[in-house]
What we know:
By secondary structure, this protein is an alpha/beta fold. It has a domain at 3-138: Rossmann fold (3-Layer(aba) Sandwich), CATH 3.40.50. The protein is 48% helix and 8% strand. The chain is elongated and about 95 Å long. The two termini are 57 Å apart.
Amino acid sequence: MSIKEVKDTRVKVGIFVDSGQRKLAEQMLRLLKEDRIHASAYQMGRSWERLNGEEIKYNFSSLTHIVVIFSASASSSRWLGFVSGYGVGRECPVFLYSADESALPGHLLSFTRVNELEELRDELLLARQVWRKSARLEHARAELQAMGLGISEEVLAACVEEGNIPAVANFLRIGFSPDSRDERGVPVLSLAIRNRHRELIDLFLKHQANVNAVSLDRGNSPLMEAAVRGDKESVQQLISADADPDLQSKNGQTALMLAVGEGFTEVARLLLERGAHTSPVDQLGMTAGKYAQLFKHTEMAELIRRSEEGKVG
């Protein structure tokens, strides 16, 4: 499927009436115009049976939704069966408007029936939302195919590592979770942090990715990944998004321990200011304070001491 072939996001409604319902059709057109719903009315006289295939395609192929104004006189008209059948064949939603309680022929019972103009407008506004969402999904899927990309979590993860922002955005549009993982069990948010793709980090956070999702390979949270790289901006974003600063990796290390071990003073300061505790102990029996002393990070050791005394800030 090429991008040109995907569904148009614009909605176009066709209103079909017989000669006796022309004023009602005009009223509908005015109402829909107020909501910027594009609509056209078709008065179905006897001449419709003389339309050939090209004329039908020219007149009706752009329609996304059909409204039939149903009346007792229309129930016996052959055009009613044609229009409803055309809608079914093209998978085009059909709405039946009937201001009275006229009994419907059996082949029309499956269509949505409304008997108030406001109700019809509400139905079409909802249909427009659904149509636009469907069109965006179809367009995103077509763009991925045009890029030569398969549709899978593995491909999504590869695009994250490469920093392919348009592709990742399209994966999210078609419904892939911002908590998807690669084959090693690494969340895509963590992959974006590991590869320092700032725009992708922002994108996943905007899509409400789980900021405490732990990778299966290292047992690190996204916050740990940012801290060990000295990525202060991401650390700040993650904490603002309620990342837990005291989660511990497979080795028992916290984001603070990792920042201290790598010598990232400003990251350590930020973590302490945002409530990171200094008491957790890793598998070696080390705390953040002990790592600061071990690596002779005097400034960080002082920050930790002041934090324990409640004086960091």
